[in-house]
Amino acid sequence: MPEEGEFYGKHGEPRKYDSSFKGPIQNRGCTDILCCVLFILALLGYFAVGILAWSQGDPRKVIYPTDSRGQFCGQAGTPLEKKGMLFYFNIMKCASPMVLLEFQCPTSQMCVETCPDKFLTLVKAYTNKKDWDYYKTFCKEGVSNIIGGIPEILKQGLCPSMLTPSKPFTRRCFPALGLKGGLITVGNNSHFDDGSGTMRDAKDLVDGVKNATVVMEARQVVMKIFEDYTKSWYWILIGLIIAMLTSLLFIVLLRFLAGIMVWVMIVMVILVLGYGIFHCYMEYAALKGEAGSNVTLQEIGFQTDFAVYLQIRQTWLAFMIILAIVEVIIISCSSSSGRGSSSPSLSSKKPAGKISHKASIKETIGHVMCSLFYPIFTFLLLAIVIAYWAVTAVFLSTSNQPIYKVFNETMCDHSRKTCEPANYSISIEKTQCPDSECLFAFYGGETAYHKYLIGLQFYNVFLFFWCANFVTALGQMTLAGAFASHYWAFKKPDDVPAFPVFSSLGRSLRYHTGTLAFGSLILSIVQIIRVLLEYLDHKLKGAHNKCTKFLLCCLKCCFWCLEKCIKFLNRNAYIMTAIYGNNFCTSAKNAFFLLMRNMIRVAVLDKVTDFLLFLGKLLIVGLVGIFAFFFFSGRVKAFEDTAPHLHYYWVPILTVAVGSYLIAHGFFSVYAMCVDTLFLCFLEDLERNDGSAERPYLMPENLRKVLNKKNKTEPAE
């Protein structure tokens, strides 16, 4: 009998012996049907949102700059295909504070092939045919047919009053500002003619350029990152494939060489971290004496070009300290786990620790080898979920309509009101405000669809969490059913089903879609609350109310703990559902009571397995990450011609590192799920059976030896 007899009654009765029980029950019915129906309806709604977004959205709004008519500059298959640059008629108008509020300069903007490369005024160009032909490339259509000369051209806003030497920046033409003799210059001149005969100082252009670049800075970073992905996606894919093959190799080697691989993982992780410390020190030492290398991170602030941080000694010092701390922690944990036995494997003498002994896991996974390949199926499903969410989010965010507003330099009652550019020249607004223009302002809308757009975005995020958690839960229940089939088989491996993973997957989808949806729904609600708390915290960062900050911090901590508890309960509930076919609430209760009846065993459960699996993940991320760093950064001459030229080489490196961790986590989670399933089955085995001829233990023979348990039919040693 289990030692925790005093818990019986209070935490449910222990399982009774049942001669008909042969492992996962085959004769079962559908569970949590209501939640299954709700999940299907939610998916149908999700598809409807996607179709609606795809019909209304236009990703070109993110990719291409937009002129005053709302047309896309440089879009293939349009008259503006060869005009990929956006030109501002008067960049100095961008100095208005309204630019930062409305994200639009109150000046005409048009698409051009190239940016102007010299000083030229309309007055001067109009008197010279060659200059006028060049100047007209920066004017609107129909300027050649205007009668009335320069005054009429300026009145109708067909041409800019001047051109200044400019350079393209994020597909936009900005003045080519420089510094000469302590003075701000444009085109090597400190003054310029503004087109009205007045000489202006070049520094007058600074505020306009500054505001325009502030508006575009975030978009610029996003566009550069997007371009980096387009140039390096196939190399990123190769890196992730290498991570997948490495993870699979480690799992297979753990199956056959568990003891050796444990030591190999520990030593290699220590060596990889050691190399990281050495590399950081070499970079730190190399920057000694370099100009600007002693600037602190606080002084430099946030920079969109992360390469700037790598030129600062403090950055490498911080990396070196972090890696050194991780190194010390891993060495300490390895030493403490190794002192208990001749190998760092799971060899605690406590019953719960021995359940994760390497021999038991090796035997179970060895007989259910197809479980090692199941994470690939999970990855494919998660990739579909992530891709659908990302595409829908992009189309939703670009499904607004172009909004045009009245822009005027002088006082005007209609200023900043919406307008129609097609007939603005004959409108009342134009009559009352002759100097005004109807310009593209931003993307928005007044329809019911646009009013509830934020709600659709929220629904997209929530369904993303729900579907992702559902896929993860499906994998957990499938693996639990497969491993339980092996554990409860009377004769191993003869009584194990031919395809335990496929059989378990079929049972999970056919009977327990509702249970999976129920558990993942609860988890998704908690996760979406955490997202809202993070959003609220971001919005209130400027507030100095300590009480509010403390309350938010407590809420974030509580919901983080709640999420961890729900994940633990869900995981064990899925195991019980996979075995007995009960609904979610019943399975969660039975799993919880089973653990409570064996509280001592749970309390002393050895975590060495989790530590070793974490080392495996860390090793794979370290190896693939180091390879990605030397490849994309161009530090190795052999890769200089092969590696793509990127704006930020940290983008593919970070993507490969995060992707490698997720891949390694997926493969190593097979081992973790095996441990959890064997543990619950082990507890039930002790409650159901006593080792007699009528009620023999079904745990693997090597596990019985570790626990000093044996069936009476076995010969005495």
UniProtKB/TrEMBL annotation:
Swiss-Prot/TrEMBL catalytic activity: choline(out) + n H(+)(in) = choline(in) + n H(+)(out); ethanolamine(out) + n H(+)(in) = ethanolamine(in) + n H(+)(out)
Keywords: Antiport, Cell membrane, Glycoprotein, Membrane, Mitochondrion, Mitochondrion outer membrane, Phosphoprotein, Transmembrane, Transmembrane helix, Transport
Keyword Membrane: yes
CC per GO annotation: mitochondrial outer membrane; plasma membrane
GO terms, molecular function: antiporter activity
Segments crossing the lipid bilayer: 31-54, 233-254, 260-278, 316-337, 372-396, 461-489, 509-533, 611-634, 646-664
InterPro entries given in the database record: Choline_transptr-like (IPR007603)
Membrane topology: Multi-pass membrane protein
Full protein name: Choline transporter-like protein
Organism per entry: Dissostichus eleginoides (Patagonian toothfish)
